[in-house]
TrEMBL record:
Protein name: FHF complex subunit HOOK interacting protein 2A
Annotated InterPro entries: FHIP, FHIP_C, FHIP_KELAA_motif
Positions of region (Disordered): 198-233, 538-562
Protein family per UniProt: Belongs to the FHIP family.
Residue spans of biased composition, Polar residues class: 198-209, 538-550
Residue span(s) of domain FHF complex subunit HOOK-interacting protein C-terminal: 632-724
Length: 765
């Protein structure tokens, strides 16, 4: 009570007293602080019961006022006094000793406000960045301390200053000798520091001396210096026997002290206070983005950052329940790492493990954003650490297990993070993890060369429909990612030599055939016995194609020697025989409904693939190695096998298989277009294409239709039920076949729309 009264009385006296020059006022407040340590006999009283906080606050006010009264960049006498007398060093020492109790908090606040409010650059001064660096080491030593909030505020202002002037980070990269030298014994308040000695002044290679004050105040300044030296000597004598209590360090082990700013932030990311942890993560985000190569190297090689990111990912992943509904994993709300707040009681859609799932996805989002923002060297190192320590070390064993429930949950989680990743560098590592780095053509004997890739592709044809659907969905989203290696590894490397074709040189007598829209040696489907039931009503004229044309697409390299688009589109539309069609009985299910979607999707794919510099036309057959045995690759093999069983598979599986194939067909690569969308390609012996697979399915369908009584009415009823136009009723015989026929018809219309849009884009100037 008495000290508070004294403080109030002091403020009253200061208000009534005549105003002193700023420097005298500044020195007065600093002397008042040092006088406390010389005169006090009770070092147990909290600092809030003293006048120290108000004196520190007045010193800040004076420094800000002095700067405002001068030209920008000009150092005033008060700032020179602070630098020359190493006031920050002394305050650091007092803060480390926490004498009186609570002094550490006051010192942190002073440093934070000084760096935040003073506009001129202070950190380049050795008498600023050295004590700042020492104070950084005190932060995060113990978690959940009363000073955590002040610690994170201080660290964040330092990070912000480094973001403004990245070169300053070099002052905070310590060598190992300095780190060891800075490790004091129990008597951490040394006489050297209190007397202002600078025994480590050469540690940063800087010899930055404070500027001398202007001549106008020289005599007065000298007197103040003499008085201050006497005060500091007394202060040193009174404090040299104080000891600093050694506090147990936080549980994050520091390999060395090379980059203490990072280490302190890493410790605070483990704070029980979520707000402190988020601020620490923000500070790390600023540091990893600094362009200084030395800082990036130190960040990844001399700190625990990589280990912290990956170990926390691993622990959060392992904390998930063994079984989580894939729908819950897919539909849980979008995760933002800085907003990881969840209340089970307030959530109406809670499910077991939701809290753990949100925590995992939130931390993965943070890792993704950190790598996205990081300097390239640091980003590559961080992404590789995630690959090796988390993807391979934790996720791969889960994906390779034999338990169906475990496979389903782990694949659903993989699917979710594939959708969520946005960093190109982390995506690259994820792609290498899933698919491997191989780019040479596949052979049937070596399809298991990358075990995880082989296992995941096999899961696309798993005995469990749920696992098949989830894995296919994962691949579908993977194909939409902006990474060239995905499509090349799965498909393109096997089509590079076009050895799925049979080369027949065009003879002069074949020119009229080409001009009529057929390439030499191709079979006209209208003459194929399988399609003798095609009627003129089932085809569209050239004029109708033009009227159905979507808006112009972005420029795409033209292709040459292509069959007329209307013949190709009619080929797909006429694959399913009339008696197996049901869409014309239901309004709004015509072919034209697919055109708009196909145009939009193709435009999006063109934008993704633009930077990959794909050729505009197929590789000349004369330069292709047509003698090599053709293998469509493991991925297409499984998809074609699945497509061949479309009449005998569940509806949901068929939808997913056709969805992946349509995604592949949209890519603007000439070999993909030829192999998946050209019905007239001359297939080499023993080879199959998407069109030939569908032809075989239709042949099987035409035989099976004859055995089903009232096929057409049943087919129409099933379609209406699927569209919700008819209520569910008694089970219909051959329901799997009927649903398969409907999916087949829609898929052929979708392929026709894609083929039209792609040809239209290729012919648009």
């Amino acid at each position: 009570m008495f000290s508070k009264f004294t403080s109030i009385l002091q403020h009253a006296v200061e208000a009534l007293a005549p105003s002193l020059p700023l420097q005298e006022d500044f020195v007065y407040h600093w002397k008042a602080i040092t006088h406390y340590y010389i005169e006090t006999s009770d070092d147990k009283a909290p600092v809030t019961d003293t006048n120290i906080p108000s004196h520190l606050e007045q010193m800040l006010v004076i420094l800000v006022q002095e700067e405002n009264e001068r030209e920008f960049g000009e150092t005033g006498p008060c700032m020179e006094y602070l630098l020359h007398h190493k006031i920050l060093e002394t305050l650091y020492t007092l803060g480390k000793a926490d004498c009186p109790p609570g002094m550490k908090q006051q010192v942190l606040v002073f440093y934070t406000k000084l760096l935040g409010k003073i506009r001129q650059p202070l950190l380049p001064h050795i008498n600023v960045h050295r004590p700042v660096q020492k104070l950084i080491r005190l932060c995060g030593e113990v978690l959940a301390t009363p000073t955590e909030n002040e610690e994170i505020q201080f660290l964040c202002i330092v990070c912000a200053k480094l973001k403004q002037d990245p070169y300053l980070v070099n002052f905070f990269l310590e060598n190992k000798f300095k780190s060891l030298a800075s490790q004091g014994g129990p008597n951490a308040i040394s006489e050297d520091v209190l007397k202002g000695q600078d025994s480590l002044s050469t540690d940063t290679g800087q010899s930055c001396q404070p500027e001398e004050p202007s001549g106008a105040s020289g005599t007065e300044h000298t007197d103040l210096e003499d008085e201050t030296s006497r005060q500091m000597g007394d202060l040193s004598t009174s404090l040299e026997n104080l000891s600093v209590t050694e506090l147990p360090e936080a549980t994050v082990v520091r390999p060395n002290q090379d980059y203490n700013l990072v280490n302190s932030l890493l410790n605070l990311t483990r704070s029980p206070d979520g707000r402190i942890a988020v601020k620490a993560c923000e500070g790390l985000m600023l540091l990893v983005s600094l362009p200084e190569p030395a800082a990036a190297k130190c960040l990844t090689q001399s700190t625990c950052l990589c280990e912290l990111l990956t170990d926390r990912l691993a622990s959060l992943y392992k904390a998930l329940p063994q079984s989580v509904d894939p729908l819950d994993i897919e539909t849980v709300e979008a995760i933002n790492w800085g907003l990881d707040s969840y209340s089970h009681k307030e959530d109406a859609s809670a499910f077991p493990g939701k809290r753990a799932l949100i925590s995992f996805l939130s931390w993965f989002d943070y890792c993704d954003q950190l790598i996205k923002e990081a300097q390239k060297t640091a980003a590559v190192a961080l992404a590789k650490a995630v690959h090796e320590r988390f993807f391979i070390g934790v996720m791969e064993p889960q994906l390779m297990q034999t338990s169906e429930m475990g496979i389903l949950t782990s694949t659903a989680l993989l699917h979710r993070i594939v959708r969520q990743v946005t960093s190109d560098i982390l995506l690259q590592e994820m792609v290498f993890f899933i698919l491997g780095e191989q780019r040479e053509p596949e052979t049937l004997a070596e399809i298991s060369r990358h075990p995880l890739r082989h296992r995941l592709i096999e899961h696309c044809d798993h005995i469990s429909d749920e696992i098949s659907i989830m894995t296919l969905r994962m691949f579908e989203h993977l194909l939409q990612k902006p990474n060239e290696h995905i499509l090349y590894n799965l498909v393109l490397r096997n089509l590079e030599e076009r050895n799925y074709t049979e080369y027949k040189p065009v003879c002069p007598e074949d020119k009229d055939v080409v001009e009529n829209g057929l390439i030499a040696g191709a079979v006209d489907l209208e003459e194929d016995p399988l399609f003798t039931d095609i009627s003129p009503d089932n085809t569209l004229s050239n004029q109708e194609w033009l009227s159905s044309s979507p808006p112009a697409t972005p420029d795409h390299p033209k292709t040459d020697g292509k069959t007329e688009v209307h013949k190709i589109v009619n080929s797909f539309l006429c694959l399913v025989p009339d008696e197996a069609k049901s869409s014309y009985h239901v309004e709004g299910t015509g072919y034209d409904t697919y055109l708009r979607d196909a145009h939009r999707q193709f435009r999006d794919y063109c934008a993704i693939c633009l930077r990959w510099e794909w050729p505009g036309s197929p590789k000349a057959l004369e330069r292709c190695n047509l003698e090599a045995a053709f293998f469509e690759g493991h991925f297409l093999k499984v998809l074609f096998d699945r497509m061949g069983r479309i009449l005998d598979q569940p509806y949901d599986v068929n939808l997913q298989v056709t969805s992946v194939l349509s995604r592949l067909s949209l890519f603007p690569h000439p070999h993909i277009h030829e192999y998946l969308l050209d019905p007239y390609v001359n297939l080499a012996s023993g080879c199959r294409s998407l069109f030939s697979v569908i032809v075989r399915v239709v042949g099987d369908l035409m035989v099976r239709i004859q055995r089903i009584q009232d096929f057409t009415p049943k087919l129409l009823l099933v379609r209406k039920r699927l569209l919700g136009l008819e209520p569910e009723g008694p089970v219909i015989d051959h329901i799997t076949l009927l649903e398969g026929v409907i999916v087949l018809e829609e898929f052929c219309k979708e392929l026709a729309a894609i083929a039209f849009v792609k040809y239209h884009a290729a012919s648009t100037p």
